[in-house]
Design goal:
319 residues; mainly beta; 16-stranded mixed beta sheet; two-stranded antiparallel sheet; 42% strand
């Protein structure tokens, strides 16, 4: 089984400045006062129109490297897995003009008394255009040191549909849209959380599994929280307990993935996490129904100097 950490990205903020000019003040004529011909006319107080509210800061996905250690959720009702361990490393680079490249390596070992140990080593490289119109992906996987066929392809968004082309002779296929790619999906989640929305339902394509699946997703978003997570009783996500991110607004999110279709369905799996306003995610929990895996962030490096292209995107990207 390949575990998926659905493109949880670190991000920064671009605070847009807003300025408004007051309308010119116009003095109303006043009645003449006897004996005061040389007196200057009285002035009424200046009427200052209300200023428009400042827009929300733009969402800027920052260059970063994040490491998550994986373990079995001992508090869950695992029926098929007795132990789990592993690590996910994500390296994310780019901006909204040039697009985003992400390198992911995920090594996971699941153990069961019935089937023994199963070791999976997955490496993935993706590129998503800055405007979310194109997506390239390549994934290689070793299971117990045996290679599987690589998944290599492209996806193009035409607005009302997405067309996926896979290398290796597979026939291209088209799915009616709108369909979001991973980075754009993250932006939409942050926008919804900022706006106070409690749910978000969209279709997502991320090139995972065999590259032939588009998922229906449904996110439940909790209320805004601020300040670092309580330190008592927990040692998880230490990089999120210090620095500027410790006091950043964040939201608990429960994101479920479904096979495309209609009617009532059981999710393939559900991803729980705390979504920070800058795109960082902590308190990871991947729930597969009969067992769940926790992700503990152990390292986070953010390139604070990156993101010029995101700033330029608001006024049009230049070559």
């Amino acid at each position: 089984m390949r575990l998926r950490l659905h493109r949880l990205l670190t991000a920064g903020l671009l605070v847009s400045a807003w300025s408004a000019q007051a309308a010119p003040v116009v003095s109303e004529p006043t009645a003449p006062v006897p004996g005061a011909q040389n007196q200057a006319p009285a002035q009424t107080p200046a009427q200052t129109p209300p200023q428009a509210p400042a827009p929300a800061p733009a969402i800027v996905l920052a260059n970063h490297r994040a490491v998550y250690d994986l373990s079995l959720d001992e508090g869950g009702s695992s029926r098929s897995v007795e132990s789990a361990r592993g690590r996910i490393v994500i390296d994310f680079r780019g901006d909204a003009c040039r697009g985003y490249t992400m390198l992911t390596r995920q090594v996971t070992e699941l153990s069961s008394g019935e089937t023994g140990a199963r070791l999976s080593d997955m490496r993935s490289t993706t590129f998503e255009g800055g405007q979310g119109r194109e997506f390239r992906f390549k994934t290689t996987t070793l299971t117990n040191n045996q290679p599987a066929a690589p998944v290599d392809g492209t996806a193009t968004d035409q607005g009302d549909a997405v067309t996926v082309k896979l290398k290796g002779g597979a026939k291209p296929f088209t799915v009616e849209g709108p369909v979001l790619f991973p980075s754009e999906h993250m932006r939409r989640l942050i926008e919804a959380a900022r706006a106070g929305q409690s749910t978000l339902s969209v279709k997502v394509f991320d090139g995972s599994d065999d590259g032939k699946k588009v998922y229906d997703t449904f996110a439940v978003i909790g209320h805004t929280e601020t300040g670092p997570a309580p330190a008592s009783g927990s040692t998880r996500d230490k990089p999120l307990r210090a620095g500027a991110i410790a006091g950043m607004p964040h939201w608990p999110v429960r994101l479920s993935y479904y096979t495309e279709g209609a009617g009532e369905r059981t999710p393939i799996y559900t991803l729980g996490f705390d979504l920070y306003e800058n795109g960082v995610s902590g308190a990871l929990k991947l729930d597969y129904g009969d067992f769940a895996i926790l992700g503990d962030m152990t390292a986070l490096d953010i390139d604070a100097t990156a993101g010029k292209g995101d700033k330029d995107a608001g006024k049009g990207c230049t070559p």
